[in-house]
Amino acid sequence: MRFLMKEKIESSAAFLKTKGIDQIELGVVLGTGLDGLASDVELLQEIPYHDIPHFPTSTQTYQKGRLLYGTLNGITLLAFQGRFHLYEGYDFFEITFWVRVFAALGGKRLIISNAAGAVNLNFDKGELMLLTDHLNLQGGSPLALKGMETLGERFVDLSQPYSKTLRAKALEIARANKIQLHQGVYAAVVGPQLETAAEYRYLKIIGADAVGMSTVPEVIVAKQLGIEVIAFSVLTDVCDPENLQAINIPDIMAMAKKGEQDLIKIVKGLLSES
């Protein structure tokens, strides 16, 4: 198993290198709220995930499931259009596999986006949150695997999971563009069901400002591999346990779209300063 993990990563990276993709320092996860950025990438290669050896494939109908290699603002990057979740039936190694392949291609910096519910009632839907820290409530770790010593350090320091330098730049860009950019703690749960009122009360007590179903495993692996990370949440609903409204997915996607242009503006600003 331990050698198979490493061999899979090397096999995927080797395949992408045959496509001319190598020594790529910047990666962008086009999660909820950033998918529109794909149209701004000057494409050199577009590869469906199912064509890449050992890559998982997204089961979400609204996620395109493809790797984009190209330039944006003069910066060469890899854009991951679609990600993987525990609730799709994948394990921790599978949902973070792409991070390890990115590192094998030279990855140094990673910009991540997600959709999240606002637990902090001072935040509103359609607004953005810059992650300052996180709570891992997914019942496991992508580092708790046999043979982890072949992939990197097992006991990874997470005192600063999100880059202070990149966060400061993002806040400066937001201020310059008069964009409301909150800062807060993101709680990652398994899902796919949304939370109960009691669960929202619990999340607030333990310090969460927003809750979602992704990002944290990817960040843990990125930190293990020495990758600098910044992450954003598009707040798609308000999680008030005393006034909890039924939520449907179309409403959540509509709110994600509302915050998309502001998030794209911040990310483009970060790229301009790279």
Q: Can you walk through the features of this model?
A:
With 274 residues, this protein is of the alpha/beta class. The protein has a single domain, classed as 3-Layer(aba) Sandwich (Rossmann fold), CATH 3.40.50. It has helices at 2-18, 92-95, 97-104, 164-176, 197-205, 216-224, 249-272; strands at 26-29, 42-48, 66-72, 75-81, 109-118, 128-136, 181-188, 210-212, 228-238. It has a five-stranded mixed β-barrel with strand order 5-8-7-6-9. Strand 3 (66-72) and strand 4 (75-81) form a beta hairpin. Helix 1 crosses helix 3 (97-104) and helix 4 (164-176) packs across helix 7 (249-272). The longest helix is centred in the last third of the chain and has 24 residues, at 249-272. The model has no long low-confidence stretch (mean pLDDT 92).
Please give the oligomerization state of what you see.
single chain
Distance between the termini: 38 Å
What low-confidence regions span 5 or more consecutive residues with pLDDT below 50?
Answer: none
Gyration radius from CA atoms, angstroms? 18 Å
Percent range for β-strand residues: 15-25%
Strand order of the largest sheet: 5-8-7-6-9
- Second-tier CATH architecture: 3-Layer(aba) Sandwich
**Largest sheet composition:** 5 strands, mixed, barrel
**Tally of individual helices:** 7
Number of beta strands:
9
Which fold name corresponds to the CATH topology? Rossmann fold
